[in-house]
Amino acid sequence: MSVVLKLVCIVTILAIVEFESVTSAGGGQCGKLSPDKLAIKLASCAQAAKVAKAAVPKTCCAQTKIIGRNPKCLCAVLFSPTAKRAGVIPKIAVTIPKRCNLPRRKGTKCGPYIVP
């Protein structure tokens, strides 16, 4: 395959991937933001989202507070493919707002879990 053809294939694939992320994020749980991209902002929560007794870093709590202003978005982020690839355990991750002493949002359902 020629170099030009390979380059065209790569550019086409990248355009499709970008289009998918833009269109799927347009009316999603997080508005125009992709839950996968927001999951990166919660990188400091990685250990706390895997181990229930792990300390939750202040940076994690700060980002959780910001994203958690929209509880449905926070749930989408915690259940995103990026979070899954990072080894996040949803049952533990949904406890982070409580562990950060953030205001409770009773009844916020996150998949099969309720955010305490």
UniProtKB/TrEMBL annotation:
Full protein name: Bifunctional inhibitor/plant lipid transfer protein/seed storage helical domain-containing protein
Domain Bifunctional inhibitor/plant lipid transfer protein/seed storage helical: 29-110
Keywords: Signal
InterPro entries: Bifun_inhib/LTP/seed_sf, Bifunc_inhib/LTP/seed_store, DIR1-like
A Pfam entry, by short name: LTP_2
Leader sequence residues: 1-19
Domain of life: Eukaryota
Biological source species: Castilleja foliolosa
